[in-house]
Specification:
Layout: E1 9-12, H1 21-31, E2 35-40, H2 44-51, E3 60-62, H3 68-79, E4 85-90, H4 109-130, E5 134-144, H5 155-176, E6 181-187, H6 193-196, H7 202-211, H8 222-232, E7 242-246
Parallel strand pairs: 1-2, 1-4, 2-3, 4-5, 5-6, 6-7
The chain binds nicotinamide-adenine-dinucleotide.
Nicotinamide-adenine-dinucleotide (NAD) is lined by residues 13-17, 20-22, 41, 63-66, 91-94, 118, 143-145, 187, 189-190, 192-195.
């Protein structure tokens, strides 16, 4: 088999529609020689239906990243399909409505806790659940929305992403001795289900359309997917704790 990811065995979370960044990542990975196992949250039959649109058939394992039983059983379930893992993709985010759209000052801790559990802490949980299957050269990749500044309407999700960026650096520290890398892709705004749940998301769309030096297609997940695959590959062997921007260059431009 040929391709950037030839022979790589990957666990990819976060497919819910064919607009999911994870769906594009799985597609590009398969096109480049990888064997992919998906996990799905909740609506498994929907995820299985969407997965049929990928170039190759893929197994789908149920995983709620807040469920300790799912996490404890993950390695055994993955082993039913592949004998190890070379890469893991965390493409998961969620915040209750109170945490988004301008509610920063009023969101209760219980809701913020949910956002942090699913969007931040789970990065570590997923990596640890997959760790028994990983060896030197392994790669964990997650998705952030540049958290170096405060955005309108992103509110506690922005805090969750800042935490995720830090968690990725700590994971890089703690898994470095085992030769396992941890990196994030900071994608620009993309019209996915998660994005649609953010009231006022169109403000990002307008800003990117006007200011990204390379321009920005809100419906094209492939640039982010390609970066994910590059970070999963052997072509970033000495890169860890990094955030790679895939945003048309928006982050580099001042107001
Ligand atoms: N869409 C954007 O504009 C954008 C930009 C930058 C980063 N991101 C990030 O990309 C990642 C993927 O999001 P997306 O935009 O593809 O949207 P999406 O809605 O397609 O994917 C989000 C996924 O999170 C999963 N999920 C939610 N709660 C879960 C749980 N408890 N356990 C397991 N999975 C759970 C959902 O099932 C879904 O598959 C997220 O981390 C998101 O924050 C998105």
């Amino acid at each position: 088999m040929s391709g950037l990811l030839a022979g790589k065995r990957l666990l990819i979370t976060g497919v819910i529609t064919d607009a999911s960044i994870a769906f594009s990542a799985a597609k590009v990975a398969q096109e480049n020689g990888a064997t992919v196992v998906l996990t799905g949250f909740g609506r498994l039959s929907l995820v299985e239906r969407i997965a049929k649109r990928l170039p190759e058939p893929v197994p789908v394992i149920e995983l709620d990243v807040t469920n300790p039983e799912h996490l404890n059983g993950l390695a055994d379930k993955v082993r039913e399909h592949v004998d190890g893992l070379d890469g893991v993709v965390h493409s998961i985010g969620f915040a209750p409505q109170s945490c988004l759209g301008g509610g920063f000052l009023d969101a209760p801790w219980e809701d913020v806790a949910t956002a942090l559990h699913i969007s931040t802490y789970s990065y570590k949980s997923l990596a640890m659940a997959a760790l028994p299957l990983m060896g030197r050269g392994g790669s964990v990749v997650g998705l952030t929305f540049d958290a170096t500044q405060a955005w309108p309407v992103y509110d506690w999700m922005g805090v969750a992403k800042a935490g995720l960026e830090s968690a990725s650096r700590y994971l890089a520290v703690h898994l470095g001795k085992q030769g396992i890398r941890s990196n994030l892709v900071a994608a620009g705004p993309l019209r996915t289900m998660a994005a649609k749940s953010i009231p006022g998301f169109e403000q990002f769309e307008e800003a990117w359309s006007e200011r990204a030096p390379l321009g920005w297609d809100l419906t094209d997940q492939e640039p982010a997917a390609r970066a994910i695959c590059a970070l999963l590959s052997d072509w970033f062997p000495a890169t860890t704790g990094e955030v790679v921007h895939v945003d048309g260059g928006y982050h580099a431009v001042g107001a």
